[in-house]
Amino acid sequence: MDHRSKVAEKKRLLMRTKLIDAATRVFADHAGHPVIDDVIREARVSRGTFYNYFDSLDQVLAAIGQEFSNQMITDILPAYDVLTHPWQRASVGFRVFLVRALLDRKWAGFMTLPDAWPHHTLLTTYMAADLEAGKRAGIFQFDDVDAAADFLMGATARAIQSIRQGLSDPNAYINAYTRMALASLGCQRELCDEGARFSLAYLQDWASGRLSAAKPLWALNMNSKEGQSFLGYSAS
Q: In the structure, what pLDDT confidence band is assigned to residue 115 with cuts at 50, 70 and 90?
């Protein structure tokens, strides 16, 4: 009985993953407003199978948002969590999200949706901790940490949308965004400029291997010719 239960649970997890993957592709590529039929068609399952796992499309969106958010933090922790200053962590965090949008179109397509940024995830936990640390240090100035986090996530989603639609100079756009994001937290102009410079140099080091931190699969593309162009460096 124990063996059969484990096999059944494995099958259930695989089917749930299949539905989430199908929904991710649908939401990343669909021009209009996807419906459940789009997901079950992409997954090649029955409507009944869908409802065995999810009650609605919104529930699928919430599951994808939770998974993407947590995975993104897990992906960047080797490079991110060694940073000690709140402004460094914030500027690198801003930049890495936008660089991934340049390199991972499927991910970027989903991250433009409001449901891609749920509360109570690893992302919001780390962001809140960094914001509070910066406020205690007198570097950040804001009234409410939840409002600050929501503002930054909303601005990042809009920036990802602009990147996905196409920009003539993505690196200049990301530099400007990083400065404005830090300025919105109350950083002095000199620190905003330093944050833009530091985060660019830091990601160049991560991409080239000068920074000995493990990279997830999507981040390996930072060292491609396209990635080098976005980050403004050459590996040669």
A: confident
